[in-house]
Amino acid sequence: MHSPANSSHGRLPQLDALVITAPGINCDLELCRAFELAGAHVETLHVQRLVREPALIDRFRLIGLPGGFSFGDDIAAGRVLAQLIRQSLYPALVAAMQRGVPMITPCNGFQIAVQSGLLPGPAAGGRWPDEPASASVALTQNSAACFSDVWTRFVIPANTRCVWTRGLTCATGTDVIPCAHGEGRFVTDDDTLAALEANGQIAIRYAPSDNFNGSQACVAGVCDASGLVFGLMPHPERYTRWTQHPTWTRLDASQRQGDTPGLRMFKAAVAHAVGVPA
Amino acid sequence: MPATAPAPATGSNLKVHRIEVRPRRGQADPRGAAVLRQIESLGLERRPRRVDHASIYLLEGDLTNDDIARIADELLADCVTQVAELQTGQPPARSGVSLIEVHPLPGVTDPAAESVQLAIEAMLGKRIAVRTGQRYDLHGVDAKLARTIAERLLANTVIHAIHDAPYIPASFPHGHPYTLAIREIAVRQLGDAELEKMSRDAHLFLSLEEMKAIQTEYRRLGREPREIELETLAQTWSEHCVHKTLKSTIRYREMPSGTDAPGGWSLLSSAAQRPHHDVQPDGTVVIRNLLKATVAAATHELIADGIDWCLSIFVDNAGVIAFDDEWAVCFKCETHNHPSAIEPYGGAATGIGGCIRDVMGTGLSAKPIAATDVFCVAYPDVEELPAGCLHPRRVLTQVVAGVRDYGNRMGIPTVNGAVWFNNHYIGNPMVYCGCIGLMPRSAIKGDVHAGDRIVAIGGRTGRDGIHGATFSSAELTDTHADEFSHAVQIGNAITEKKALDCLLAARDQPDGPLFRGLTDCGAGGFSSAVGEMGKSIGADVHLDRAPLKYDGLSPVEVWISEAQERMVLAVPPEKFARLQQLCDDHAVEWCDLGEFGTPTKELVLRWHGVEVGRMDTHFLHEGLPTPTREAVWDPAWSAIQRGESRRSTLTTGGRFGLSERAADLAKALEALLAHPNIASKAWIIRQYDHEVQGMSVVKPLVGPMAGPGDAAVLQPVAGSTRGLSIANGLATGLSADPYLMVLAAIDECVRNLVCVGTDPARIAILDNFCWPSCKDPRNLGSLVRAAEACYDGAKAFRTPFISGKDSLNNQFVTENGTTIQIPPTLLISGFGIVPDTQQCVTMDAKSAGSALVLIGATHGRLGGSHFALLTGSQGGELPITDLTVAPKTAHAIHAAMRAGLVRSAHDLSEGGLLVAAAEMAFAGGVGLEIEPANAPGPATSLVAKCFAEEPSRYLVEIASNDLAALQKLLSGIPHSVVGHFVTKPVFVIKGADEQIEIPLDRLRERWSTDTVQG
C-alpha cells in the first residue's frame, strides 16, 4: 500500500492519521497528502486488514475514509463497504470518536458514512448506539442522473459545530471547492433536516446558485453532534495548493495568501487532534 | 485466494428470486427522467409522457425468506429514498403503460451482479448466482414504439436481451463441463483457394502468403497443425499485434497531380537521403520497414543527436521518458474502433481499460496518472444510416459513458481529448484512448528468466473477446454485429483497480519487486502475452489452471480469450509465496499457469497434463512472410475521395460567400463557434473526473467562463512544482494530403503544449494511424506520405516519437456493397515538461488594457478549413507547415513565458483567428476589439485572415508596456498586434470599412451549442 512517509522511530511525538483504503477507493493519495501538509503522520491500512484487527484503529488520532468507487459502487455508491463497516468496524470507529478523534469522509466516504451509522450519528447529548442505526439521510443520484466534475461556491453555516469547518472564512473568489460525483444529492425528511440545522450539524452548503446535484437545502456536508465526524460530497483534499484552484492563473497575490480553504479544514482538525489522547 | 469454483452449477432445484428496487413514492426518479430526455432527442413521432425506472436483481440459490428480506433491505435498496419489492414480477399497474426490461445476455460480464454476489457472500456466507437487469415503464406509448425505443436507446441486442414483460427465468443458464478433443486442421494438401477460404471462414484473417508459409512449416514438420497452433499464429501474426503493413517493404510511386489536386511535396526529391529508402531506376522508391524507416528512425537520429531523456522507446507496452532525476513518465495511446462500432459503451470502456493495462504493464509497472480520449464520429444529424450502423449520436454518448464509467472507477483523471465529426466515420467510429503513467526510473525495464513462474492475476477467463485481434484486422460489414458479437467485451473496472493496487504494492516491496517482468493480456489474450514474454526462451503452459467465469471453455478458448483485466507476470519461484499473499490481501485472484523456458525453447500448451499444442517460437515470431506491397500516391484520386468525405449535414453549405463585410464575418464566426468540432465539449469533460489524484494544475476548461484550454498540466510528484503537460494534434481536415495533414497535427500538438508553458525542447509524441484498407495501393500511398511527415516533423521539432499504434482496415461495406472509407486519420498525442507550474499560462484573457498579438504568418490557404466547410467548398490550397519557422516560433513563445511576459496564450487552430480570439475573450469575460486586417503574412484576403487554419500561429495577451520586450524575442518571426482587450464585455470586429459589436455572452452561447445530446 501507499505509505507516503515511512513510520519513524525515536522522533518527536507525532499525530498519527489513519487513511482507510479498500477495493475501488481511489482518492487515498490526495487525502494522505492533505493530512501530511496539515502536519500529521499518515498510515494507510486496507479495510481487509482492519476487519481482521479492528484494534489497529485504537492508536490513531485522526481518521480519513477517502473517496472512490468502493467495491465498484455498482449497486449504489458506498453500499458494499458500508455493509462491511456495519458488520465489522463500527464499534472501533465509534470508540475512536468517543476518544475525540476527528474523522473526515469525503465523497464516497460520505456515502459510506451515512449508510453505516456514522453520520449524522445520535442526537445531541445522545450516546452512540451499540448497533449501527439505519440510515436517516441519503446521498442519491444527482438530479441530472449524471456524474459531474465541477467546482462550486460554498457557504459555511455560522452555527456549525464541525471542527473541520467552524469559523472558516475565505477571500472572495477562493470560496470554491471541487466536487466530482454521480450520487451526491442529499435527501432526508424534514424533521431530520430541521434537527441537523438547529443543532449546527450542517457543516457546509453549496451556494444556492451552485447546487448542481439538487441537494435538499443545498446541504453539501454534515457532521455528527460532536462536530468530529465530517462527511461531505466535495473534495477539500483536492484543494490544498493554490495551483489546484480552477482559475488560479488570475488570482492576485492577496487572494493567494496563506493556506487554501481545503488545507485549512485539515489544519483545523489536526489542531483539534493535538489534545486527543492516543 | 486461488481460483474458487464458479457459482453453483446445479440449476434444477434452485429457485430464482426476483427483487425490484425503485424510488419510494414522492422521491425523484432521475434515471427515469434522464431516459425521457434522451427519448426526446430520438425524434420519434410519439414519445412517452413519463418513464419510471427500476433495478432488477435475480438471485438463484438456496435462500430463506429472511435472507431475501435482508438482501433486499440492507443491500439492494436505500431505505431513505427507495423501496424493494420481492415478487415474481408484476406487470405494469396501469393500462397505457408499456414495459421494457433489459437484461445482459448470459456470459456477458455483469459487474453489478458480481458485486451483489460478493456482498451476499460476505453478508450471509452463501455463494449464490446473481443476474441484474433494468426495468422501464413507459407511459403513453404502445408496445411497438416501446420496443423501438428499447432498441434505439435502452439496449444493444449484441449484449442485451429485451423483454416486454417482467423477466423471471425458471433457472439460469450454466456452462457444461468441457471434454477434451484435440482438433487437427488439414492444411498440407490444400490449394490456394482453399487456404484463403479457410482463413476467412475460421476468422483467421491471414493472407494467402501467410497461409502458405504455415503450410510450408507444417509440411516441414511432417504433421498437420492443431487448432490451437493455427489460432496462435493468427493472433500473433494479426495486423493488430505485429503491425505487418507498417513493418513491410513498400514500393512507392507518385502520380502527377491533376488540375484540382493538391500538388506539393514529393518524396522522390529527398528519398535518397532517407534511411532504409532506395530509389529505383524506374523512379519508384523502395522502403524497407516503413515504421523503422520513418517514425522510429526520427527518434533514433534525435537520440544520436543529443536527446538523452528517452528512456525506453518502441520496445515496451508504452514509451518512457525521463520526468526528473528520480521519476519517469510513460504514454500509450490505443484505438478500439471495431468493438466500439458494435457496442460503443463496452468497446470504449475496454479501450481505456486496455490502455491503462498497457501502462500497468510497462517496465516493472507504472502508476496510471492521466487518461486522454479522442473520438471521430459522423455528424449527429446524419440523414442516412446504413444498415448495421448505430446512430452517431448514440455512438458518441455511449463511448463517452464507457470512458467515464471505467476511467472514473479506476481513479484516473481523463484530462485531454477531442471530437472530430465527419460522415465517413458512420460505420467506423474512431475511439482513441490514451494513458500516462508515472514510475520510478529504477522500474523502467522488466525481464523474464527461464524458471520464472507464469502467473496470471486479475479477472477470470470467459468467452468474451475471442478473435478480437483478428477482428480488428477485418473490414466491417453490415452483418458484423451478428458475426462478431463474441468479440465484444464488457469490462469491470473494479477488478482492474484491485489488480493495480496489488501490482504497485508488489513492485514497491522494500527488498525489490516480487516479479521480474509483466505484460497485460490484450489482443490475443494469453497467447499474445505469454507468447511475447516467452519469445526467446519458450514457455510451458497449463491452460486448465486458468480460473474461468463459467464451465465449458476449451483450451483454445482459454488461450485466445480476450477477457478483460488480466495481467501476466514472470515471478521468480522464491518470491511466489509472497506474491500470492499480497494478491490474497488485495482480494485479487491469481493462478500459476506454468513456467517460462522450455529445453527446446518451444511454446508448449497443456490441458490437464495432455499436450494440446507445441510451437517453435522462432517460426511464430519470425516466420511471418513480408511481401513487398505496392503503394501509389494519386493526388487527384485522393482529392476526390476526401472531398466527398468532407460533405456534412450540419454545415450551411453555400450560405457563406467571401464577403469582407463585418456583419458577414460575424455571422461566419457564430456559425463556426457552433460547429460540433469547435463547440464546447463541456458535456463530455464534466462527466469525467478530471481531477482525481489531486495533481491537476491546468484543467481542460479554463477561466471564469470555462473556455477550451489548450493542454492539461499535472504536477505528478508531491512537493515538486515540475509539471507534465498533455495535449493532442489532429488535422483530419487536411486528409487530402496526409503529408501536410501530419505536419499540421504535430505542429498543433506542439502549439497546444507550448501554450500552457511546456518547454518545446522536452516534448515527446505518439502516433496513431487509422487508415482505410491499405490493400488498396492508393491508401497505402497516402499512409507512406503520413509516415514520411512523421519523420520530417519529429526531426524538425526535435519531438521524438516514443510509441505508436495502427489500425488499418477502417472501412464499412454497406448492404448494397458500397464501401465507406474513413478519411486517413492520424492522431498525434504529446506530453512535455513544464519547468515550473507556477509559470503556467491559460488561454482565458486576463485584463482590459492588454494587447492581443498574433504570432506566425497567415498565407491565405483556406483548404481543409472549417470556413470552407461552411461555404460548401474545398477551400483551395491546403496549408503548409514551415518546418524552419515553426520550431523557432515555439521556442520564442516559451522564452516569452519564462520571462513572465505572457498573460494568456491560445493555439490558433480550428476555425481560425476570430474563433480563437473570441474563445480567449469569452473564457476570461474580457472584451476585445480585433482588427484582423493586421494579421501578419502574405495573405491579402480579409476572409482568409479571419478564418484560415494555417499552422504555427499563436495568440498571446501582453501588457502594453511589455510589447517591446516581446518583440525582441520574436525577431525574425512574423507577428503583430491584432487587437486590444477592453472592459466592455463585447467582441468588436473591424471589417473592411465598418465594424460590428457582438456581446461576449452571445458568442459563448453559440459555442455552448450542444448538437449531440439535443
Q: Can you walk me through this structure?
A:
The complex is a heterodimer of chains A (278) and B (1014). With 278 residues, chain A is α/β, with parallel strands linked by helices. Chain A is built from six helices and eleven strands. A nine-stranded mixed sheet of chain A has the order 2-1-3-4-11-10-9-6-7, sandwiched between helices. In chain A, α3 (79-98) packs across α4. Residues 1-12 of chain A have low confidence and may be disordered. Chain B is built from 31 helices and 41 strands. In chain B, α12 (344-360) runs parallel beside α13, α13 runs parallel beside α16 (493-507) and α24 packs parallel to α25 (777-797). The two termini of chain B are 48 Å apart.
Brief digest:
The complex is a heterodimer of chains A (278) and B (1014). Chain A has six helices and eleven strands. Chain A is of the alpha/beta class and 278 residues long.
Layout of strands and helices, then pairs:
The complex is a heterodimer of chains A (278) and B (1014).
Chain A: E1 16-21, H1 28-37, E2 41-46, H2 47-52, E3 62-64, H3 79-98, E4 103-106, H4 108-115, E5 137-140, E6 148-155, E7 176-181, E8 185-188, H5 190-198, E9 202-206, E10 219-223, E11 229-232, H6 261-273
Parallel strand pairs in A: 1-2, 1-3, 3-4, 4-11
Antiparallel strand pairs in A: 5-8, 6-7, 6-9, 9-10, 10-11
Chain B: E1 16-23, H1 30-40, E2 50-60, H2 65-76, E3 82-87, E4 97-104, H3 111-124, E5 129-139, H4 143-154, E6 160-163, H5 192-201, H6 208-221, H7 227-236, H8 239-242, E7 249-254, E8 277-279, E9 285-288, H9 290-293, H10 295-304, E10 310-312, E11 319-322, E12 327-335, H11 337-342, H12 344-360, E13 367-377, H13 392-410, E14 414-421, E15 430-440, E16 453-458, H14 468-471, E17 476-477, H15 480-483, H16 493-507, E18 517-520, H17 525-533, E19 539-542, H18 555-560, E20 566-571, H19 576-585, E21 590-596, E22 602-607, E23 610-616, H20 617-622, E24 628-633, H21 635-645, H22 662-674, H23 682-685, E25 696-698, E26 701-702, E27 707-708, E28 712-714, E29 723-729, H24 738-755, E30 763-770, H25 777-797, E31 801-807, E32 811-813, E33 819-821, E34 825-834, E35 851-855, H26 866-871, H27 885-898, E36 902-907, H28 913-924, E37 927-930, H29 942-947, E38 954-958, H30 963-969, E39 975-982, E40 986-990, E41 995-999, H31 1000-1007
Parallel strand pairs in B: 7-24, 13-14, 17-32, 19-22, 30-31, 37-40
Antiparallel strand pairs in B: 1-2, 1-3, 2-5, 4-5, 4-6, 7-9, 8-9, 10-11, 11-12, 12-15, 13-15, 16-20, 16-21, 18-20, 19-21, 22-23, 25-28, 26-27, 28-29, 29-34, 30-34, 32-33, 35-38, 35-39, 36-38, 37-39, 40-41
Helix pairs in contact in B: 2-3, 10-25, 12-13, 13-16, 16-19, 22-31, 24-25, 24-27, 28-31
